[in-house]
Amino acid sequence: MDPSTCEILVVGHAALDLIFRVPNMPLAGQKQPASDLQMAIGGPGANAAIAIERLGGRASLLARIGGDAFGDLIAAELTRFGVGREFLCRVEAGSSSVSSVYVDDCGERQVVNVLPASLQVAQDLGPVLRAAERNRFRAVLGDSRWPQASAELFSYLAESGLPLVLDFERPSDALLSAGRQATHVFFSQDGLRMFSERSDPVDGLRIAQARFAGVVGVTVGEQGAYWLDDGALRHEPAFPVAVRETLAAGDVWHGAVTLALGQGLSVQAAVRRANAVAALKCTRAGGSLGMPEAHQFREFLGQVNA
């Protein structure tokens, strides 16, 4: 399938990231000088949608932003990256989500995010459902920050045969409901630990498989990703790189794996591609500003496969 004809619907969170470069993570009560400041669009859903666009697919984002200056900036950045805004919900009386992000010299990040209560209002999903009825999308990706919308869409599309992918990070009743309808549930390592109450990711996946009917998997950083295929444990190793920044790497991974599944790739091929894209992102700074493009991804794979 031509990637340019593969449109993915991404459901979830859009925010504005203020990214501070610091030598070390701030300690409690400490004033920490920063060497640089960048402003970028953030949030798992928005980052995944941008990753899909950069990789040559098409992405439409269902997310909520406020009627404030931050919302203006988020909308403008989505347009700049080519992400479809048809389903973007503007809550005029709401305040947009903003994150303060610290990235240290080792590339690790610490995020403080606000998702204002004024933004968390019910939305009419009718236009999205009608678009889905016309077979417009090839896959749907939902994140953990707007699980109610993901649960409703997944339930509506349960018999569609589409890949319905859930980025599982923060357990909640709505997220569990979405997970029961999803064809693929991919956990972060922390998300799986909170869900399963097990420290070993393989044990956690066994518990998840008993709760969800679809494929269940987990990303584990430098170890790559594990998933269960009809009860059999599968593993795809990570690509070793010199890490500059881990910010948005997980979001990029989910965007890449969903695009690949929407293009008809197997789970193993999709996970391998997502591992490569996330590794390449880790070599680049700036959150969404450092998302790799399709030609850069192909060059990276050519180098590691040489």
Can you describe this structure?
By secondary structure, the protein is of the alpha/beta class. It has one domain (3-26, 35-305): 3-Layer(aba) Sandwich (UDP-N-acetylmuramoyl-L-alanine:D-glutamate ligase), CATH 3.40.1190. It has ten helices and 13 strands. It has helices at 44-54, 69-81, 126-133, 147-156, 173-181, 189-196, 201-211, 249-262, 267-282, 294-305, and strands at residues 7-12, 15-21, 36-42, 58-66, 89-91, 97-103, 109-114, 139-142, 164-168, 184-187, 215-219, 225-229, 232-236. The strands form two sheets. The protein has a nine-stranded mixed sheet with strand order 5-4-1-8-9-10-11-12-13, with helices on both faces. The chain has a four-stranded mixed sheet with strand order 3-2-6-7. A hairpin with a 5-residue loop joins strand 11 and strand 12. The mean pLDDT is 94.
Provide a short characterization of the protein structure.
With 306 residues, the chain is an alpha/beta fold. It contains ten helices and 13 strands.
